[in-house]
Hints:
The protein has 335 residues and is mainly alpha-helical. It is 64% helix and 0% strand. The protein has 22 helices and no strands.
Amino acid sequence: xxxxxxxxxxxxxxxxxxxxxxxxxxxxxxxxxxxxxxxxxxxxxxxxxxxxxxxxxxxxxxxxxxxxxxxxxxxxxxxxxxxxxxxxxxxxxxxxxxxxxxxxxxxxxxxxxxxxxxxxxxxxxxxxxxxxxxxxxxxxxxxxxxxxxxxxxxxxxxxxxxxxxxxxxxxxxxxxxxxxxxxxxxxxxxxxxxxxxxxxxxxxxxxxxxxxxxxxxxxxxxxxxxxxxxxxxxxxxxxxxxxxxxxxxxxxxxxxxxxxxxxxxxxxxxxxxxxxxxxxxxxxxxxxxxxxxxxxxxxxxxxxxxxxxxxxxxxxxxxxxxxxxxxxxxxxxxx
Length: 335
C-alpha cells in the first residue's frame, strides 16, 4: 500500500495543473527541513526525475521544482544522483530555452552540482571532444552580457560556477585557452557593482593562477585587465602621487589618481594577493609586476590594512619580492 509521501510524489505527474502545483509546493516545503530532505531522499529515484520534468513548466510550477532541486542538491549523495541522471545538461538546456523564467534558480542548481568532480566533468562535457567546453562558453557569454537591472541579475551566480570548475586542472585549462578568450571576458566583470560577481571573478582568477608556471604567457596576454583587477582591491583608498602614477600603465594610474570606493570584502583582497603571489613566483611574472609599479601599490595598501589575514597575505608577497629583488628595479620594497 502506497504511503502518503508516495501518493504525494505521484501527484507531481498529475495531468491536472492545480493538483501538480499543490504537490510541487508541498515537496518544495519539505526540502526546507532536515527530516523532509531525509524522507524525500529515500524516494530519490522518483522525486528527482519528477522534479526535473517540471522545470519546463510555467514559473508557478517550475520555480518551486527548481527550488526543491537546489535544496536536495545540497546533499552530496543526492547531488551525485542528479549528475548521474544528466541534470547538468537538463539545466543548461533549460537555461537557454526561450522565455525561461527560472534562469537564476537553474544557475544556482549548477553551483551546487559543480561542487562535485563528476558535476564539473559533466559541465565541461569532458567525454565529448566536439562539444567540450560549449556549456562553459555559453555560461561565460551570458555572465558577461549586460542585463536589465529592473529584472535583476539572473546570471550573477555563474561566477560561483566558474570558481568551482577552476578548482580542477581541466577547468583551468579551458578558461586559460587563448583561442577561446574566456579569461579576458571574465576578468572584465570585476568592474561590476555586484559583490557576488566580484567574488566569483577574484576566486576564479586565483584558482587559474595555479597554472602560472606553465601558462604565464596567457596571463600576460591579458595584463591590461589582469593587473587592475588584482591591484585595485589591495591599493587602499588614498589618491596616489604623480610620481607613483607616472610608473604605472594608464588603466591603473587613472584609477589610482582619483577617490574610489574600497573593496570591503577581505576575502577578495586575500584572493587578489594570493593571485599576485602565484604569478610572481615566476621570474617573468615578477618582472611584469615591477613594470606596473606593483610593489609600491602593495606598500601603500598595506599601510592602511587592518585585517590580520589580509596583512599576512601582503607580507607573503612582500617577502617573495624581497627575496627576489634582483628581478625588479632598485625600488625599496618593505611591508
